[in-house]
Amino acid sequence: RPIIEVLLDDYQIDFDEGTESCKDQMAGLKDAMLADPERAMEIALQPIKDWEIRKKQMRTDFMDNIRAQLSPLQLQRWESLERAMRREKELPLGELPGEKMNIFAVLHGMELRPGDIQTIDPALMTYEIELDAALDQRRQQMNTHQPSLQDAMVSKDYEQGIMGLSQIAKARNNVIETHLRAIEQIHQQLDQPLADEFRLKILRRGYPEIFKKTIVDTLIDNLREGNELTPEQSSGLDAIEAEYRVSIVESNENLLNAYRAYGDQIPVVQARQSIARRNKEPVNRSENMPQQILDATKSRSDMIQEYRNRILELLTPEQISRLPASA
């Protein structure tokens, strides 16, 4: 088999064995934790810390071994290959809405003409480099602050932990902003309707709670397909739908902007809720987001419900009774 395939298989075997070894060590710590309750958390986290150190060294060795097998021409493309490998490894670690978006994957699934690809290629190159830097910064912040988060869990110094969590969240938000800048630039460069198709596809992946089909979309589709509307009802539906299409775009953008402005506060809000629950303090589980995002979400939901009610007012009771539950 090719040497690189062998190296990859060996790396995967070592990684799986290391992961299982870490789990086995943690499973065998019960007696030690019971014997020293004050250090229980520190004892429990030690195998994870040891495994993190070993993982970093394994990856460094693997990359060095791969590089040694490449031809001079392949080495010239090594930086781009490394960036692609980092994207595949780091993007799935996103936790905030929009953080896991992969523009390359979405574009790969679209039917782009050679001219389209040539047009957006400079923007994609800029995005590739900027995203790599943002992912590297996020990794550095995680490596810097995650040990302090673990220490805070042991010492119960929650404010110290929240400070570290906040710094990581800012780096996460920088990844999101890198995505969104590139999305807007590519959207401006592609021709219609391809541009809007691209933007909707990528944002629907990053923010499904905003850009997925709403109950009003489903209701309109069902009524159009049913062919049970009178001419007067059809005209009324056309007028309401025209208003709705404008309102939903505006509402979606408002909610997206709320996430852009306040999304990096989500981990802190949720951490404070977790601390409150641990302290047996009252917690409103529905308020697990920054208030500005909650307000924009409620405004959007109210708007959607208002349009749904207006459409239902066009229908007879019999027509309403035949609607599917999803509408």
- Provide mean pLDDT, rounded: 90
SSE class: mainly alpha
Number of strands: 0
Global shape = globular
Quick gist of this model?
The chain has 327 residues and is mainly α.
Give a topology summary.
Layout: H1 3-27, H2 30-35, H3 40-68, H4 72-76, H5 78-90, H6 103-108, H7 114-155, H8 158-189, H9 194-206, H10 208-211, H11 215-226, H12 231-262, H13 266-278, H14 291-312, H15 317-321
Quick tags:
327 residues; mainly alpha
Description:
The chain has 327 residues and is mainly alpha-helical. 79% of the residues lie in helices and 0% in strands. The protein has helices at residues 3-27, 30-35, 40-68, 72-76, 78-90, 103-108, 114-155, 158-189, 194-206, 208-211, 215-226, 231-262, 266-278, 291-312, 317-321. α5 (78-90) crosses α7 (114-155) and α11 (215-226) runs parallel beside α14 (291-312). The longest helix is centred in the middle third of the chain and has 42 residues, at 114-155. The N and C termini lie far apart (55 Å).
